[in-house]
Amino acid sequence: MRLNQVTLPSINVEESVLFYKKLGLHLIVDASPRYVRFELPDGDSTLSIHQVEELPKGDGTTIYFEDDNLDELVKQLQQKGIEFTQLPKDQTWLWREAHLLDPDGNKLILFKAGENRKNPPWRIN
To answer: What's the Cα-to-Cα distance from 62 to each of 8, 32, 82, 106, rounded to whole Å?
Structure first.
């Protein structure tokens, strides 16, 4: 089994398209204003955005995007006008993370974990 597709809700799909293009995703399906789908620059995963009348309440979902050159990626995104709620920071769980929100308030975490993502020192067998 593989996770290959995540879909996020959006009030304004066109605004989300601009945001996710700035992040470096490639638009592959455009049924605006109702639905769009992106492929990620690395791997085989896709991310779609679908229009909703109202965003879900509560904490919602957090999407993680891993990049081996996290600090450089964050600098490039800041130059494109992307704002972060947390700049790259080393976490106690051995990941380096930067936090941001998409135009609809969906939480995104750009991170670098390397081997610690699936094999932290405290991994159970």
So the answer is: 10, 24, 17, 7
**What does DSSP say about strands 46-51 and 5-10: parallel, antiparallel, or unpaired?**
parallel
Give me the long-range contacts of 88-92 (CB less than 8 A, separation at least 24).
none
Is a pLDDT exceeding 90 seen at residue 61?
A: no
The reported pTM is 0.92
**What structural domains and CATH numbers belong to the chain?**
5-117 (3.10.180.10)
pLDDT in tens, 69-101: 999 999 999 999 999 999 999 999 999 999 999
Taking the C-alpha atoms of residue 101 and residue 107, their distance in angstroms, rounded to an integer, is: 5
Q: Specify which residues 96 forms β-bridges with.
A: 90, 112
Q: 20 exposed, middle or buried (CB, 10 Å; 0-12, 13-18, 19+)?
A: buried
Q: What string of H, E and C letters represents the secondary structure of 26-82?
A: EEEEEECCCEEEEECCCCCCEEEEEECCCCCCCCCCEEEEECCCHHHHHHHHHHCCC
Q: How many CB atoms lie within 10 A of CB 6?
A: 12
